[in-house]
Design goal:
By secondary structure, the protein is an alpha/beta fold. It contains 10 helices and 16 strands. It folds into 2 domains: 2-124 and 284-314, Quinone Oxidoreductase, Chain A, domain 1; 127-254, Rossmann fold (3-Layer(aba) Sandwich), CATH 3.40.50. The strands form 3 sheets. Strands 3, 5, 6, 7, 8, 15 and 16 form a 7-stranded mixed sheet that branches. Helix 3 packs across helix 9. The protein binds NADP nicotinamide-adenine-dinucleotide phosphate.
Amino acid sequence: MAKQWRAPGPGPVEDWTFDDVEVPAPGPGEVTIRVRAAGINPADAKHVAAPRPGATFPVPIGYELSGEITAVGPDARGGSGQVAVGDEVVAFRVQGAYATALNVPAGDVFAKPATLSHEEAANLLLAGTTAAEMIQVTRAAEGETVLLHAASGAVGVSLLQQARTLGIRVIGTVGPDSEESAERVRRFGGIPVAYGDGLEERVAEAAAGEPISAAWDAVGTDEAIDVSLALVSEADRVVTIVAPQRAESDGILWIAGSRPESARFRDIARAHILELAASGALVVPLARTFPLADAREAVRFVMQGHPGGKVALVP
Ligand SMILES: NC(=O)c1ccc[n+]([C@@H]2O[C@H](COP(=O)([O-])OP(=O)(O)OC[C@H]3O[C@@H](n4cnc5c(N)ncnc54)[C@H](OP(=O)(O)O)[C@@H]3O)[C@@H](O)[C@H]2O)c1
């Protein structure tokens, strides 16, 4: 018997239940994983907060994890090749990572980069593949300057590191009173500017005469979108991952893992993100870990909007 967090119906994290679940022998193409850490993303709570077309409840919570293979089903082939009992792996995108053990499709299971702890590895791929898609859809290229909103967050920090490997200069917004956020942005090669009144002028000043070629929005405020549109001459080089309504009204791009074209891109991008991590070019700063049993508290900590790094659940 395993334990797993599930949303019994649409609603807040307070409604989630920590259930006993059977984990049968893995079926064809599946493996069983003993979870060592589950990654937490804002989507975990957002996707079950309200009724969604196609969602059938109960919904097992959590899209990514790190752990060990404990059983291999018939014809199971991993995303990075053969899989065997005892392998240390990450899995993304799966359903129900907030668990002690579960069965997942082997194609979504990859060798864990030795450079990362389980807690870090469990938080690598959702933010990493989202960031990779933001870079790709805005056609950001070496030598350009890009504006990044919410630069100190999980997606932001992955963007900063991936941009650095590509030779892209990033001006990243941070909380006006948060020296910690500014320091994190500097550590990963970005130029921090405080969000809030006067943002456009501060970004222009930080750009020091260089044009802002593109913008990556990971917060979705009107301020972020308005300043992006004021500074970037082509609307289709501004992407948001939070404000689809502004994409609709202003002709900017919106991407989301639930969209088939994004899901396809991100599936392919997993291997590249894992390689970057294995080479040491991509790390995952952790804010905290919580016991798996305290998932509700951990998710509330992330959802207050300033977690200061990734958060992992540890069974
Ligand atoms: N569409 C997609 O595919 C997709 C994928 C991943 C994430 N997301 C969404 O993207 C957002 C960010 O995710 P995450 O995992 O990076 O979150 P996170 O790690 O919790 O980071 C949130 C960041 O937002 C910043 N922030 C808070 N208020 C702000 C404001 N008014 N203006 C600018 N920045 C502000 C915070 O910076 P300070 O602490 O410095 O204030 C913090 O660094 C979430 O809404 C998430 O649901 C969407």
